[in-house]
Amino acid sequence: MSISILRTVDGWWIETPAGASQIPTDATTTRELLAEADAIRLLARQRPVDLVPLHDLDLLSPVTTPCRVVAQMVNYASHARDSGFDPRSVPTTFFRKASGSISGAFDDVVTPAHVRFLDYEVELGLVFGDTMRVGDTITEADLPRLIAGVVVANDVSAREVQLTKSQFYESKSYPTFTPIGPRLVLLDASDFAYLRQDLRLTLSVNGVVRQDGTVADMISQPLESLRVLSRFQQMDPGDILLTGTPGGTALKAPPKAIEKVAALLSPSAKWSAFFRSQAKNPKYLTAGDVIEATIRSSDGAVDLGSQRTTVVDEEVNT
């Protein structure tokens, strides 16, 4: 049975259909909380007491900072096709995000003043519950030990920074560019089958669905991703791996004919022409847009909840 964990300034909570029950713990970080996972599972099986209505809780990200935030590039076949790649030839690759980009599931997404092309990417986040060391041999049986739980994440991206500077770290690391939550869903061993086939990721902007796909569309499933990542990157309890996004982002590769013409231009001319065309794309996020992102299984047994964030412009002091 999966267990839904919430976090507020007052501590940690177990979510139930009738409300939330506070966990008696001194843990202040996700890492510290996950060290008590067995006790939390026992507590969840008991009759909850002193329930608090969910709407009374002001939720924070259930992943605390600082932590490692590692993300996968192009890991859904639909996203690969949108990006102009053949899914059969896409390698398993990663980049880092600053953990200072993490925010809550209902916090505003703040657009820096210099960013015009703000994009969204709903992603399944794997939260580590044990250390994965460089050189470890990862098997299917290791997944329940290594991955304590899962969350909804949005890998918000400043596309002009990403493309013109080939800079993933900066373009995806501004404050509020990684909304996480609302829940950290702790998984039982039997729940890991959902991570291969039956979790649906959906993202809408102003009520219009932009992304809608399942983890079955992943190019590298979690086991293969961890096997590659463990070649060079240690992950510790409380760290998070974002596992890619389905197709449907605002950014898409230009048609092949346009790419051939652009190849004849200087880099500055090429990017100038590209962003002139992107300025006509209404799918980029602007102030006032409301983003809703959900991840859940078709049977409802694993439900990561729904985050709702509003895009606002950065306040610039003059």
Question: Can you offer a commentary on this structure?
Answer:
The protein has 318 residues and is of the alpha+beta class. The chain has a domain of 219 residues: Fumarylacetoacetate hydrolase, domain 2, CATH 3.90.850.10. Helices cover 19% and strands 28% of the residues. The chain contains nine helices and 18 strands. The strands form four sheets. A nine-stranded mixed sheet has the order 3-2-1-13-10-9-16-4-5, sandwiched between helices. Strand 17 and strand 18 form a beta hairpin. It starts with a strand and ends in a 5-residue tail after the last strand. About 3% of the residues have low confidence.
Topology overview:
Blueprint: E1 3-8, E2 11-16, E3 19-22, H1 30-34, H2 37-45, E4 69-73, H3 77-82, E5 93-97, E6 102-103, E7 109-111, E8 118-119, E9 122-128, H4 143-146, E10 147-154, E11 157-158, H5 159-164, H6 168-171, E12 178-179, E13 184-186, E14 200-205, E15 208-214, H7 222-229, E16 240-242, H8 256-262, H9 267-278, E17 290-296, E18 303-313
Low-confidence stretches: 257-265
Identify the CATH class of the domain at 61-250 and 285-313: Alpha Beta
Number of helices: 9
The percent range for helix content is 10-25%
Strands of the largest sheet, in order across it? 3-2-1-13-10-9-16-4-5
Q: Give the structural class.
A: alpha+beta
Which outline best applies? globular
Over all CA atoms, what is the radius of gyration? 20 Å
Tally of strands: 18
Topology as H/E string?
EEEHHEHEEEEEHEEHHEEEEHEHHEE
In CATH terms, what is the architecture of the domain at 61-250 and 285-313? Alpha-Beta Complex
Q: Mind describing the biggest β-sheet? A: 9 strands, mixed
Q: So, the CATH homologous superfamily of the domain at 61-250 and 285-313?
A: Fumarylacetoacetase-like, C-terminal domain
* Percent in strands: 25-35%
- Mean pLDDT, as a whole number? 93
CATH fold-type name of the domain at 61-250 and 285-313: Fumarylacetoacetate hydrolase, domain 2
- Cα end-to-end separation: 53 Å
